[in-house]
Amino acid sequence: MKELIELALDAADQAGAEYADIRIVERETESLAVKNGVLGSASTDRTAGFGVRVLLNGAWGFAGSAQLERAEVTQITREAVAIARASSMVQREPIVLDGTPAVVGSYHTPYLEDPMTVSIDDKLKILLEADAAMGRVAGVKVRQGQIESARERKTFASSEGAHLEQELVEAGGGIEVSAASASEMQQRSYPASLGGQHVTGGFEAIRALDLPGHGQRIAEEAVALLDAPDCPSGDMTVIIDSSQMALQVHESCGHPIELDRVLGMEASFAGTSFLTLDKLGALQYGSELVNIDADATIPGGLGTFGFDDEGVPAQNVPIVSAGLFVGYLTNRETAPIIGRQSMGSSRASGWNVIPIIRMTNVNLRPGAAGSLEDLIADTANGLFLSTNHSWSIDDRRLNFQFGTQIAWLIRNGRLTQMVKNPIYTGITPEFWGRCDAICGPQEWQLWGVPNCGKGEPMQTHRVGHGAAPARFHEVRVGVGQ
Amino acid sequence: MTGGAAWDRPALEALLATALGLVDTGEAEAIFTSRDAALTRFANSRIHQNVAEHDATLRMRVMRDGRTGVATTNRLDADGLRELVGRANEICLRATANPDSSPLADPLAATYPEGLGYAEATAHADPTMRASGARSVIAAGAPAGLEVSGAFSTEASTLAIANSHGLWNSHAATQSKLLTVMIGGGGASGYAQASGSDVRTIDATAVGEEAAEKASRGVDAIGLEPGEYPVVLEEYAVAALLEYLSAMGFSALAVDEGRSFMELGQQIMGENVTIWDDGLDPRGMPAAIDFEGVPKQRVDLITDGVACAVVHDTATAVRAGTTSTGHGHPAPNVWGPTAWNLFMAPGSRSKDSMLAGIERGIWVTRFHYVNIVHAKRGILTGMTKDGTFLIEDGRIVRPIRNLRFTQSIPEAFSRIEGIGSETRLVAPEYSGIFARVPALQIGRFAFTGATSNEGAA
């Protein structure tokens, strides 16, 4: 491997590149899905390759290949150089990287039980027991469950002298059930939708979910939802559960703080951001209760690592402090534009694509509202929303609309009527400004989002969000009914 | 170029035969996919990302005694193949039996015109060509002082499938796509895209001029109260709706599982709506076979507003007592088939005549971040983007700030008052679903929210 790295970096240097790096990545995944009592699919995937990135005449070029051989490394480096030359045909100011020191080091995800070596029998047993629990409820239409495991080994080396070895281990799993009538279909998931919970870490995280122990409950809820009344319309106090808060943070904070998006680099795909440079340190993003950080160091997060894909060490940086917007996600190219050094959020989803600014773990810090039970008891009238169903936000990350799988009316501090098809909508800073309570550390959970899409070609990446249930007043609910 | 370029037909036949030969008992399927793709991305009127990737993978499905094991690799030498088959065998050994598992497809040779959906010019496009295209687009936005962003991509891919029933099918294809978003003062923006198998059909200057014209008209947008309005939807907006109609309900599995709006045999849209899927039509983005090796068939999904049929893979076809229509993902899977190549029948109206028929309404260029609210009711939500205008007395009178819609699409498609005479091939943003569609005039469309002016430039 050392020989291939030197070959690429030497070839880039000889071609006149100011900077070059190479990432060699091998990713193995194992996926099991049980559907309606039988094994729906079982697979192991392995992909390996390398990507070479060069900065030539102040312009980027990148090429990647699956063929880890000497001649191919040389050819791919030449291709990256040719691409950089083409980039310089349409250039304004030359790209200048920040002064992050080159690091030599390594990182391994800590875990107790390697998810890639847990037997298929063990995993299937969990999924089949959960399936049976869901199947005990009359009226259920479709039952599904999945467990995924991954191991990624990557080596990064740069012309500045960085050399990093990392091994990231991931585990994920969840169950979902649907019930249908002639005119209605309802779903419930555990512990969250979008495939459940995902972590960096060991299989102990999946065992702790106790998927079989929650199968019957979500099945009963899905069936009950068929005959539940629709969510009321109007402005209400809402309490949002922690998994939905994770999606709320993701869409209305995580994406708009990506500095490349702020600078217009994502304008042609998912849009720009309302958090323009003049807002840094000046905009009251939310109420004084709102504290958000980006923490790539926290154990277990899907955005946890040792070093980003530009070789910058993982960090924890403040994003929103007492409601004030104070920080962006940056990389080595964009950080100097705001007079800072990269905070280490440059990530590539695979060997075949370039690193771009991605969320790490963007977390809403816990508050002082105690347990969820305490918060509900403290709410006279409102709505408790749980488990994401749909999401949409405008191209500057202002107007959002979320649907959740289920909600309950709150009356005099107690959950009462279950309601179906709940939707809530708002404008980002107005919404966060109406946050008047956040549950405490005992309700705070770090969620993994395994399907965050960004960039062209689109990279689907794995990011994390910690959140506790939170309460917001005067939120518009029941849209479009 | 080491992805697909290294694999001609004899090499592919040998590779798949070798892989299948390593499976000593039971049935097996081998799927080869390769991708040589490049993309030049520009923003703030300069190229800021410029990439190429070359990959080739082999996926093995091994079936024995009702059990199935699947493995993939992109290491395609002899050792890689042995390791691949070993992993697939191991999974198969440990899997539980599934009596409903997808059977292997029967050997049915795909017949399609040589070169369908493939252009050498696209396969051999170089970064200088893409940079020149980007420069032409940027130049079109320069006179109006617009910040120009976009992406110009070219790709060559090969799909080849063989199984132990004797099936062997393959298809090599190319795709190219150029899109741009131009942003002017006050946040006014415009959009255009062009796509096709042959990159030579893309006129970069025309793409740039279309977006620039739209952005120039978007200055000083006003807010408009949400509500139900008559609309004219440009082809980009219509294609996004069809993309999600497919995701919600054009699959046999979605109908089986009670989550589709498709009530087969029922009138679910207006009599003027006809939608079909056809992977072999060169006016779309052709794909001759699916990921089970089954040749693509045309499927008439909605004819004169009546839900006629849904697409099948081998698993749903077996359950329904029919044959696959060639819309399968790699099997087995839990998500079912997909209609990837959509067409909507044109009408007879010009966009100007649609506009003339509206007293007060909204012109929508495209939708952004569309998502499913309620699949069975066909309800979607999303935002307008890059050119939303107020129509009064048959004329576009001024730009308006982006609006959020929450609308049942089958209901909206029951209120279509005009269908454009021209169609346009639109590439998807998120899925692999291409759609050739006309513009539409719809009597009522529900807008449920509006964006804020916060942060406008």
Task: Provide an overview of this structure.
The complex is a heterodimer of chains A (481) and B (457). Chain A is of the alpha+beta class. Chain A folds into two domains: 225 residues, PmbA/TldD superfamily (PmbA/TldD fold), CATH 3.30.2290.10; 244 residues, no CATH class. Helices cover 20% and strands 39% of the residues of chain A. In chain A, strands 1, 2, 3, 4, 5, 6, 7 and 8 form an eight-stranded mixed β-sheet that branches. In chain A, strands 9-16-17-19-23 form a five-stranded mixed beta barrel. Chain A has a four-stranded antiparallel β-sheet with strand order 12-11-10-15. In chain A, helix 1 runs parallel beside helix 2. Chain B is of the alpha+beta class. Chain B has two domains: 198 residues, PmbA/TldD fold (2-Layer Sandwich), CATH 3.30.2290.10; 237 residues, no CATH class. Chain B is 22% helix and 37% strand. A six-stranded antiparallel β-sheet of chain B has the order 3-2-1-4-5-6. Chain B has a six-stranded mixed β-sheet with strand order 10-9-8-11-18-17, covered by helices on one side. In chain B, strand 12 and strand 13 form a beta hairpin. In chain B, helix 4 runs parallel beside helix 5. Chain B is globular, with a radius of gyration of 24 Å. Chain B starts with 8 loop residues before the first helix and ends in a 7-residue tail after the last strand. In chain B, 62% of the residues are buried. Chains A and B meet through strand 2, strand 3, helix 2, helix 3 and strand 5 of A and strand 1, strand 2, strand 3, helix 2 and helix 4 of B. Strand 2 of chain A pairs parallel with strand 3 of chain B.
